[in-house]
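Record type: ASSEMBLY
Status: queued
Input:
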Amino acid sequence: MSDTYIVHDPRFSALFIGHARLERLWTGGRWLEGPVYVPAAKSLLFSDIPNDALMRLDECDGSVGVFERPCGFHNGHTLDREGRVIACEHGGRRISRLDHDGIWRGLADRFEGRRLNSPNDVVVHSDGSIWFSDPTYGIDSHYEGHRASPELSSCDVYRLDPRTGAIEAVVTDMLRPNGLCFSPDERTLYVSDTGRTHDRDHTPCIRAYAIGPDGRPGEGRHFAASPSGFFDGFRSDDRGHLWASNADAVCVYAPDGTHIGSIPVPEMVSNLCFGGQKRNRLYITAQTSLYAIYVNAHACGFAD
Ligand code: MG
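Status: finished
Output:
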């Protein structure tokens, strides 16, 4: 076995291509985050938060350039069901959307009259609602945004209805909710908690929340404890495996929570997403560099 993959459980062997290797596509950032694949543009957008830049990889020629700078200290991104980019902005402390006319429009910046902390990561449900985490990392210092005191007394996960602007707190039992995604059937919401940054006794973990008949998460349960460092961003593949950033690796979990394998990465991994024309290329943002590897899995929701 090469050192590209670490197999903890035979189930992982079916998910990678033995001779596929991790590729470093670009380097030169400060802290890369928030990759989102935009199929119609054959591009990957990703954040370089301290440089206040939104970067773009052109998948056709491999070039990387600035898509927008300054951009408002973007962190996480995703696509909505109409293919529009949804962004978490540390600078504006808001959720915004890049509309088809090329204009960024703010969708939410307050909860019950108080400013959000600094939206971090985001997913869109098939009903169009936008779910995002709101820890304080973008206001803790000037490095990833603008330092400020929180107006909210907690860090929660919110559900935003972009049609009405209604926003509600749906996960409220975490210290610093961070990455999140749905299972393929959308019956489970997974959320990572990086609260150890503010409480040394906190255990970095991913929790799973069953979605109830009302479309809201119920009580959470433990899903996975971090083997080292933190879980930051993660995504589900079409068969429900979680591909999670974790220190200097991508850790892969079976739907039952078993850590089945890992892909070591030379830098600290912040986030990842599936991309490529067949959504079987895992794009990985890690500290100063963008990496990718073809895998034998593809994006949740990809219809082939
Ligand atoms: Mg994050």
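Annotation: The pocket of magnesium ion is lined by residues 76, 120-121, 178-179, 232-233 (CB under 6 Å).
Annotation: The domain at 6-294 is CATH 2.120.10.30 (Neuraminidase).
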